[in-house]
Amino acid sequence: MGQLMAAVLGDLAARDGVPVFATVPDVGEWHRHGQESFVAIRRDVWQRPARVTDYRFLDTFAEMAAVRAVVAADEVQRSRVDCLVGVEFALTLRQLGPTLVKHVLEPMVAAARGYRFDQDAFDAAYSRLEDGLPATRARLVEVVPLTAFTPTAGIEAVTLPDGLVLQAMSDRQVSAAIGYLAVPIAFAGGPNSVTVSRFHQWALTRCTSYPVCSNMDVPAQPTTPEAGALVEPASRLVAALRLVSGGSVTATRAIRCPPDDDFPQGTGPTASLSALPAFDEDRPTILGREQVEAMREVYDLLAHPAVREDRGLQTALRRLVLAGADRVPTDRLIDLIVCAEVLFIKLPGLPADRWKQDKIVDGATALLADDPVLQAPPERLDALLRLGYRLRNDEMHGDDPGRQELHTLTGQPTDRLSAVVDDIERVLRRALVRLLSRAVEQ
Fold this sequence. Notes:
Blueprint: H1 2-16, E1 21-25, E2 31-32, E3 37-39, E4 41-46, H2 63-73, E5 83-87, E6 90-94, H3 96-112, H4 119-132, E7 137-147, E8 149-151, E9 157-159, E10 165-168, H5 171-179, E11 186-187, E12 193-195, E13 202-214, H6 231-245, E14 250-251, E15 255-257, E16 270-271, E17 285-287, H7 292-302, H8 305-308, H9 311-325, H10 329-344, H11 356-368, H12 378-396, H13 417-441
Helix pairs in contact: 3-4, 6-7, 6-9, 9-10, 9-13, 10-11, 10-12, 10-13, 11-12, 12-13
């Protein structure tokens, strides 16, 4: 291989002089150009002379015959080039000549900035090729991007059961998410430049490996990975994040793509084009370091059979999640009060003849009067929930909620309905967390 590359570089130097590098459009990938900026162009790309682009280019050199002889003599190598290669459910054509140009010659030219043989550059490129061509397994990362979410500084990743990891997406994962419209984008300065907010660059991920094969040894009945395997864990993660940190985080479309640095095994990004949920960009979910363990605990509680089988808890959770994603405060309020009614109207120990409003207030104050997170006295909980109930009724009956005097959980007057709704959501989030634990203990 070294002799082949030396001959090719000598020919290029004699006939073309020096390499030309340029910025070119890239229709297949978005490249990071800053924290939130991505462009569909590649910079500093070697402009291959016309003859190099021919797939038979390397076969014009005598040294290529020796390379082909070595490949043909190797039982594994000969089944990995000049045929369809990949995992059994995704095979693509891999030709030896273009593969060597892309993965050996091009990196050498880029590293040397000229048509000369550099031993270190050759060793690096050849080592990657030698490891990648005969690889017996290919890794694929399942990615479910999150919108309206980011952790605070210092959180690199959050591990969850079953090999799941909550982490920032790699550049190629963000690129795939842009391509499949799995993250919100804004065009910036033309169709080749977009911005992706830092609140849309994290995802739930899981890495799985699959056997590499070719059309020569593909199984008679190829199998495919389970579709939508991360849909349920992603939905549960969204609920856990909402309960612990609030905000409007949502999970979008499931994507599957190879890791950025792996040698390509014929697999590119694919996605399930599911419907996209709503979120409120003005209320992102921000996970603090002190909340990570609580989020993990709630994530586990949500999977417990006692919680899954409790219809009341499931209804309340669904209403809370719906409320968190809505941009309209009165619509959020309606869902939140429905959530409160589900949680407290039938709560054991409350008199059956009480008004619904009283049952909600009594149930919440009994459950949360000593809550260390809210730290709100019973009279403040009472006043906030009664206000919320009246405001909900006004909206439902066509009256103007603005005629009420508004105040927050602390008792401070406010003219913002959203501030009242935010505090009611905080109360119900804490109530649900405690009721989840109670359901599991029972």
